[in-house]
Amino acid sequence: MDLYLPVANLSVNALVIIALGGVVGLLSGMFGVGGGFLTTPLLIFYGIPPTVAAASAASQVTGASVSGVFTHMARGTVDVRMGAVLTAGGVVGAVIGVFLFRLFQALGQIDTMIGILYVLMLGGIGMLMAKESIQALVALKTGKRLAARKRRHHPLVAALPMRWRFYRSGLYISPLAPLLLGMATGILTMLLGVGGGFILVPAMLYLLGMTTQSVVGTSLFQILFVTMATTMMHALTTKAVDLVLAMLLLIGSVTGAQIGTRISMTVRPEYLRILLAAIVLLVAARMALGLGFRPDEIYTVEVR
Amino acid sequence: MNRRARRLLLAPALLLLSAADQPILVPDVSQREVEIQYSFTGADLLLFGAIVYPDGRQPKKPADILVVLKGPDQSITMREKQKVAGIWINADTARFRSAPSFYAMASSRPIEQVVDQRTAAIYEMGVEKLQLSPSSLNESAELDRFQAGLIDLRERAGLYVERAGTVEITEGVLYRARLPLSARVIVGDYTAETFLVQDGRVVAAAVRDITIRKSGFEQFMAVAAEEWPFLYGLAAIALAVGMGWAAGAIARRF
Fold first, then answer.
1. Residue span of the signal peptide, if any (chain B) (predicted)?
2. In chain A, what are the domain boundaries?
3. CB burial of residue B215 (10 Å; 0-12, 13-18, 19+)
4. Is A265 on the interface with B (CB under 8 A)?
5. Can you tell me the ipTM of this complex?
6. HSE (CB half, 13 Å, CA atoms) of A145?
7. Among all residues of chain B, which has the CA nearest to that of A259?
């Protein structure tokens, strides 16, 4: 079933895009991540222009995180204050991202930049996740419990001036720390079309030292609002949001997300995490090879 | 019948009288307007017409027909990837002021048998002969490399097409050629040029205009994204939030 994308200016097989959204949604439901890290590369691989892919993937992440935010709000596992600070940082980051996007576009290096960022980000986080989930699995098999990590924020965070109380997170720290963290993820959201849950969740746990219960809900809260802001910024600046493409992705991903959530309740979280780590490392490796191998297209054309 | 219409009807007759010793072409296309709709996966255009010889006398040696379908010109920047420090990045660039966004050509015989290099260059017959007007300071060997890269890229995207030997000429007077329009064509004004070639010389030429535009919903979306970006962005956000919420609400019922 072929469908013409009015902004991307080409026709795609609607069922392929829906299926793609479905797979990403399934993963995002299973692992509690937005899944943007898979959508953008897959869309580019399918032949959608990179800018349109990144711009439209952001709105898919919005759709995938909405129902999660509602659920966590109802359970009271969202630190709204922390989320608001992170979101404020995220929006600032997205604005910075716009400038970076334009700068690298003018230099002609935006594709390389996106590739390198993906490899560094996914490779680093994937390694971290793999190490940790293997440790958890070993602990599970041998029956030995891991010594609970002392929950403490990083010394650098403690050094920042001005302190706020974040009750739900159990923290008394400077709001500058989450603000900067939000900014970093906002830049990534704008450049890569990813939600940033990958960076946020570990950073909130290990850098800020937040309580585990409120981490996922709060990061979803931030992702929801930052992807909304990013979609708007793409609409205003790059004008590359394709509503038909977003619609197709959303149909697949919101359905997949619900199924994924069901699956996640029946599988041990340790196995889920090692699976996610494997997928993340696989994508990173594929992107790294893509940078090193001779590309299919030596030439690219940019219309002014 | 008003005056204007009468004059239009008279025009071909006048032409016949004024150039009595030269043949003329009466071309047409199957579609004057191509509309891009939701199911657009490209189109086939039929270019056809008649060769009218003075007094109906056909030359002994059969003439050749060349048709060229050209899309709006674009100003483009081309980048070439090179391996730098182990990774492939964009290194060299070249800028061209007038690269046609679409170019398709069909001829009754292979182009090199129909016209010589010079004539082909003058009339831009064939993708190799496109005049891209480079606007950057590259060496000519470099420019040739970039031009070859552009042609290769666009040929594979179906944007540059050459169909030698596909123009059918019936009884020496009626011709027809079929040219494919890729789904990746941009909207705008296209021209379909027809050349009548005799002994390597262009003896008659005629042009028909074709408009390609998005229609209905596709047109609306493209205009909305361009003209009302804020509302368009809001719509995208509302769509995402609405669908995400609806899916959650439905799933809770089961």
1. 1-23
2. 2-292
3. middle
4. no
5. 0.82
6. 3
7. B251
